[in-house]
Prior knowledge:
The structure holds two protein chains of two kinds.
Chain A: H1 2-11, E1 17-19, H2 23-29, E2 54-55, H3 61-70, E3 76-79, E4 85-89, H4 91-94, H5 102-105, E5 107-108, E6 112-113, H6 119-129, E7 133-137, E8 143-148
Parallel strand pairs in A: 2-3, 6-7
Antiparallel strand pairs in A: 3-4, 4-5, 7-8
Chain B: E1 3-4, H1 7-15, E2 19-22, H2 26-31, E3 38-39, H3 45-52, E4 59-62
Parallel strand pairs in B: 2-3, 2-4
Amino acid sequence: MSPRAAARLESLGFREVYDHAAGKLDWFAAGLPIEGEVTSEVRIGQLVRGDTPSCTLEDRLGEVRQRVESAGWDQAVVLDGRRVLLGWLGRDALSRDPSAEVETVMLEGPKTLRPNESPGETASWMDGKGVDSVLVTSSDGTFLGVLRRGDLDVPRQGELGAGA
Amino acid sequence: MPTEISRREAQRLIGAGAQVLDVLEFSEYRESHLPGAVHIHLRRLAEQAREKLDADRTVVVYCYDYA
């Protein structure tokens, strides 16, 4: 629709018209500010923990593990120089040979969610998958943070109606 | 012919003062839109564009996605 609108504006005499073809969906998925009625609704991008330990492909596992433990975490993300998510290190990976390079043990292409997802739907998804945390990136792959299930103010499946 | 731009370029232009135009249904615009966006539905462009936008300034147009 926007290419037609942009072309029509030009035909009406507008001199400099640009078509942001990826549109509203891409803007929101990048976690950028929005206006309108939904702005009062909490989105998962507001709930992520951005202080997740990170490392590069070339780092040694032992050094990364030390940083992860001293920060009180149980995982680390692998990022490039532009903070694009390349991989993930969970407990199992972090417990391997300390001299190994991160690239050889990380999980490639971990599952990610976009920051504009709703807490309720995300909680259902996490409960269904049995995961306690998930990585959140913008639509261009930039790492935003880790979302913990416990940070979603939504009862776990099975807790709904408990005691009723 | 209008130039297609990336989100980053749209951010840059909007930050530099470009006008932003949302051509979705009004209910969709009311629910959420880019900061500062003006709403004109595609079918009302000819009627409202000059009233709501400055033809001499840059305009960034968007809808929902590539569809």
